[in-house]
Specification:
With 344 residues, the protein is α/β, with parallel strands linked by helices. The chain has a single domain, classed as L-arginine/glycine Amidinotransferase, Chain A, CATH 3.75.10.10. The chain contains 10 helices and 19 strands. The chain has a 4-stranded mixed sheet, with helices on one face. The chain has a 4-stranded mixed sheet with strand order 4-3-2-19. It has a 3-stranded mixed sheet with strand order 8-9-10, sandwiched between helices. GO terms for molecular function: agmatine deiminase activity; protein-arginine deiminase activity. This is Agmatine deiminase.
């Protein structure tokens, strides 16, 4: 029986802050550090227009560098808090806390095991990140619950009222020994969900995450789902994303109604050093009063932003240049983790 005293809030609910980790020469960004810092500076400038930003840095030298970069772009540093901790990389959607909220305003930092996306990369420092943030008092009185089961924040979507959406392709890679029924039970218990919806189709070439849901389909307010579509019949993604769209059309709300679907346009293939990069418009970030939307320098950037705005009415739409991020196979949502209002 799932304990409903806690729940996983939807991303569009009020937030305290956004959490990021700054790239440095000891991370996988080393070869293109200057390029990716332009995205991080643009992200910091956008977030701090609406709310606070917590930046994890490796040491004081990096903190001073980041302060100088942000000051040069006119970022309000009174809205920025720096925390010094070691980390392997900067994908805080996956190594950061999945925060559950109780009806009395208490919070639980749910700390799943982070394995570097199934052992693809070293992740010991990233796996210890949440505990480090807790030790530094970042989250006030929130409780900290470690769960010895691999799950990344990018692998789940919540509607805030008990439904979790995820992909079979990702979780069967993490837990090949477990059945869908077993994983559904674990997700329901650990995330205090009333139901878990699974997608069997959908992927992006070049994606290290094994089809994280936040690159494919996102819940939006009012029983909406925004998803990455492909309208190019010659593209190898066409059939798979078409089938995913059909799966989404077959899903029902708890009241038995279909979701309102918002298909996103398909960017032209971006090839770098002979490999295709995973450019998804579904990988956007919601903040207080706005949605930050990835832009890739493609002709359909503006159309993607318009559709996302339509699905999130009443919010300002801010485009953030994300082409440097997809060199490492992620985008805007992947490098951030929102923190619910009241926890910071």
């Amino acid at each position: 029986m799932t304990d409903l005293s806690l729940r996983l809030p939807a991303e569009w609910e009020p937030q305290s802050a956004v959490l990021i980790a700054w790239p440095h020469a000891g991370t996988d960004w080393a070869d293109r550090l200057a390029d990716v810092e332009t995205t991080y500076v643009a992200l910091a400038a956008a977030v701090t227009r609406f709310q606070s930003l917590i930046i994890v840095v490796g040491d004081n030298t990096l903190r001073l560098r980041v302060q100088a970069l942000l000051t040069g772009e006119g970022v309000d540093l009174s809205k920025v808090r720096f925390v010094e901790l070691p980390y392997d990389d900067t994908w805080l959607r996956d190594s950061g806390p999945i925060t559950l909220k109780a009806g009395d305003g208490a919070f639980q930092l749910t700390d799943f095991r982070f394995t570097g996306w199934g052992g693809k990369f070293g992740a010991d420092q990233d796996d210890a990140l949440i505990a480090g943030l807790v030790q530094q008092g970042v989250f006030g009185k929130a409780s900290h619950k470690r769960i010895d089961w691999a799950l990344e924040g990018g692998g789940i979507e919540s509607d805030g009222v008990g439904t979790v959406l995820t992909t079979w392709r990702c979780l069967v890679q993490r837990h090949p020994e477990q059945s869908r029924e077993q994983m559904t039970e674990i997700l329901s218990d650990s995330l205090h969900a009333q139901r878990v919806l699974w997608l069997d189709y959908g992927y992006l070439e070049g994606d290290d995450t094994d089809a994280h849901i936040d690159t494919l389909a996102r819940f939006a307010p009012g029983d909406r789902i925004v998803y990455q579509a492909c309208d190019d019949t010659s593209d190898p993604h066409y059939d798979e994303l078409k089938r995913m769209g059909e799966e989404l059309a077959a899903l029902r709300t708890p009241e038995g109604k279909p979701y309102t679907l918002y298909p996103l346009p398909w960017a032209k293939p971006i090839i770098d050093e002979g490999r295709r990069l995973a450019a998804s418009y579904a990988n956007y970030l919601i903040v207080n009063g706005a949605v930050l939307v990835p832009a890739y320098g493609d002709a359909v950037d503006d159309e993607a932003a318009r559709i996302i705005g339509e699905a999130h009415p009443g919010r300002e739409i801010v485009q953030v240049p994300c082409r440097p991020l997809i060199w490492q196979n992620g985008s805007l949502h992947c490098i951030t983790m929102q923190l619910p209002a009241g926890i910071v």
